[in-house]
Prior knowledge:
single chain, mainly alpha, 3 helices, elongated
Amino acid sequence: MNDEGIQNKIEQLVQEEHSLLQLDGQSRSADKHERLTAIEVELDRCWDLLRQRRARREFEENPDDASVRDAGTVEGYLQ
């Protein structure tokens, strides 16, 4: 996926996240919470991939060699 594709995916996820946050009891809260958590993880993975691609480009490496890291790795980063 190229940078534009990653950014589009991020925008879609953010829109879905905002839509879910707008719901007031229209869906079961457990389902809503589960989906929001999944969106958060996927957003983190997308941002990580975008950062990898930018770093590779900065150091004159091929950005297409960047890869999506698993959720455990991305979520394990120190804040």
